[in-house]
Amino acid sequence: MEYELSLIAPAFNEAQNIEPFCRMVLEDLVPRVEGPLEIIFIDDGSSDGTYERMQEAIGICEPVCDVAAVRFSRNFGKESAMFAGLEQAQGRYCGFIDVDLQQPASDMANMLDMLKASPHADCVAAVASRRTKGGLSSKLSEGFYRILGRSSGMDVIANASDFRVFTRTVAEALISMPEYHRFSKGLFAWVGFTTIPYEYTPQNRHAGETTWSLRDLCAYAIDGLLSFTTAPLRLATIIGLLASLLAAIYLVVQIFQRLYFGVDVPGYATLVVLILFFGGLQMVLLGILGEYLGRLYIESKRRPIYLVKQIQRSRMQGADDAPRPHDSLR
Fold first, then answer.
1. Best CA proximity match to 177, nearest among 166, 168, 188
2. Buried-most residue among 74, 160, 222, 284 (CB within 10 A)?
């Protein structure tokens, strides 16, 4: 069966939000989709009964739309869950949405309508409205996307979220890149399909707390930069050349002082500062090289992006627990 829309919903410890999410989709999205709809839940190694709530969601949604519940063997991260959802999706259009109800299903319907009405567009990406922006985190986010776009040469939409809807062509392009370190916002920009921004107002979480800390967001941003640009390596080269130039200038100054003013013994503090400065600089540059080499090492292992422990599908899909060829390993 070909679906009009495949709704991909990753979740980690979101047991309290699964049923309200289903009610929201049934009320605000299903009536506006012209054709069959499937919901693909991905349980990213939850420990609070999220998968059991997903199984119950099959009974809630089954008369109206198809549901697939995929359970990972452990927590592989949201990026892996999104990739797994893409591989399961069969719809003409695909969409990413969180289950915490911060991303309204009505906005997903609006984005789908916008995409259908734009013959030259391939993707519609949600951007938080200006009313919700502000503060240090917003400035840092804008700065990150600006740096990523300029250093990689990609057309990156500032503050675009994973909340988006796109065509089957875009989905197949993303599936064709099974890299281990994934950064979806960068991948959407790299494939180069036409993306339209859609402004929306995020809602409050229905229940629970976000698992994304400032530390996690910083690590995620670093992964994104290292995955799509070699600018840090180029910067390391420039810093090394400048440090060498400064050292050469300092050598000339010392020779000049020795020849014309006699022997000048440098101060102890100056010597210590120079040693610490250049030693620290070398460690930073080695760390940048190590980050890239570490990623090459992990990619060379070709380990699966995720492992599936269990799958259950609604009867409308001919449900059984037999996985598809790429369900268990990818």
1. 188
2. 160
